[in-house]
Amino acid sequence: MKKGALQISFGWLFAIIVGAFIIFLAIYGVTKFMGTEQETIDAKTSNEIGILLNPLETSFESAKTTSFSLPAESRISNGCNDRGNFGKQLISVSQKSFNKWTETNLEASFLNKYIFSRETVEGKNFYIFSKPFDFPFKVSDLIYMTSSKETYCFVDAPEDIEDEIKTINQANLLTEDCSENSINVCFSGTCDINVNYNQNYVKKEKELLYFVSDSLMYAAIFADPDVYECQLKRLMQRVKELSSIYLDKAISVNERGCNLDINTDLIEFNRLAGNFVDSKDSDSGNILGFSSIVEDLEDKNDAGGACGLW
Amino acid sequence: MVIKMKTTGGFSILRPNRKLKIILNKGGQMKIQQTAFMLIAVTLFFILAGLFVFVLRFSNIKEASRMIEEENAMLLVIKLANSPEFACGNSFGNSRTNCVDGDKIMMLKEHITDYSGFWGVAEIEIRKVYPDSESTLCTLGNYPDCGIIEIYSKNVNKLPASSNFVSLCWKQDSDMGVYAKCELARLMVSAEDKT
Asked: How far does chain B reach from its first CA to its final CA, in angstroms?
């Protein structure tokens, strides 16, 4: 043997190579397992958030608020698609692990929920409050989700809005003593978010988002424009289905001695809701174009007395 | 010295250093065989341990999924009576909570294909409890003289139902005109058993 050459027997060489291979496999397996585990946690959290929103649906209360915390710094993605009869509310959660955001393609989907928020809400503590949307019958409860990291300051809000915000008593919604970092929501003048309460629109990111009720005004304030328009389209899909049910109910109760003159309006309302595109553009100009038919429906339903449909 | 070895084909002649080599080679082969067996055993151990962990983990995921489904059904049954498709609203005089509009439900049944998957559960039904607890299934023909309104039923394995007491109201025709009639009922929701 040459002097200085390393003498390794075949057995050692074999054991080193195979040992290294086994260690590599073990590390690879553990890393993969941890990734899957994290993805499972994310998917489970997404589903649980959706389910936790169930009790938020109101009966006759004007607004309900609650909060929840996640064990780690998280990003909740609010997805929305308007395909199918009701579209879908998609929720996915990405959590910070070892200073890196986990990647997940697993989304929990819900057909009966409408969450208005930024496309991605980041934080550990989240606030949610809900408010019913009547158009003119109850369509759904709208859910507004914000992070505790963001504070909204309502400046010069009308009295009823200011009272409602005070009643809700949500820590990140203020009407006075606002900090410099808070997002200003102004009802007059120019701010981060501008609300024109008389002409029923919210201006943010240079876009106009029209609303027809206070519940939609809050939706426009808290949601990104794309989220707002998509969820509004989904709400109109539900309006369409509900108006069909009420039309059938009207026919049924009229056969039992009622005399409701509402069918024609319900058919027209159903058509308009089916053709709805976004808050700015619909058959009747924008969502404000629904106002007259909504008022008619409300009047005719009230006039029905004991035969009222909703 | 010459050694004669008997082989199958007859005798062969081997020198002593050749014999030593054979013994050494046999020792080496034994060591390689031992290492190989050891490696196979270690690999098998890892595979079995991995499989065990995987099965344990998978059963946990199934359990978590079942619990989420059950939780969904339980929370849904609490608020379902107040959802727009079920709620009485103001149609029976004044606002009522946990009141289900029977007339609306019967019409919802006609549109139920549009609502497939809407509540994320496997079955929703309403059973009259008091004063009548009939077991006749409701159709547009026999309504309201029936006991069970099966609103939605998916053809899958179902978990035990969660239920909530509600008042089931409808508009009843009489000589005096139309009036609201209400009875006590149970709203039942079952989740799908995916395990």
From this structure: 78
Under 8 Å between Cβ of B173 and A256: yes
A-facing residues of B in 126-165 (CB < 8 A) are none
Nearest to A42 by CA among A97, A92, A96, A98: A92
Q: What is the dihedral of CA A81, A83, A88, A89, to 10 degrees?
A: 10
Find where tokens 């989420």 sit.
B68
Q: Is the peptide bond before A136 cis (omega within 30 degrees of 0)?
A: yes
Q: How far is CA A101 from CA A45, A72, A95, in A?
A: 15, 11, 6
B175–A contact, CB cutoff 8 A:
no
Tens-place pLDDT, residues B30-63: 777 887 788 888 888 888 888 888 777 777 777 7
B108 contacts A306? CB cut-off 8 A: no
CA distances to A283, B36, B65, B73, B94 from B78, in Å: 38, 63, 20, 9, 21
Tell me if A184 sits within 8 A of A153, measured CB to CB. Answer: yes
Which of the residue ranges A48-57, B72-81, B152-161 would you say has the lowest mean pLDDT? A48-57
Pairwise CB contact (< 8 Å): A252 & B50? no
Instruction: Please report the pLDDT score of residue A80 as a whole number.
Output: 95
Across the interface, whether the CB atoms of A246 and B110 are under 8 A apart is answered: no
Would you call B171 and A256 a contact, using CB atoms and an 8 Å cutoff?
yes
pLDDT 10s digits, B159-168 = 899 999 999 9
Q: Do B178 and A256 touch (CB under 8 A)?
A: yes
The residue of A17, A54, A91 whose CB has the most chain B CBs within 10 angstroms, and thus the best one to mutate to test that interface, is: A54
* Residue-wise DSSP of B73-88: HHHHHHHHTTSTTTB-
Is residue A134 within 8 angstroms of chain B, CB to CB? Answer: no
Whether residue A99 contacts residue A123, with contact meaning beta carbons closer than 8 Å, is answered with no
Is A242 at the interface with chain B, CB within 8 A?
A: yes
Residue B124 neighbours by CB under 8 Å, 6+ apart: B80, B151, B152, B153, B187, B188, B189, B190
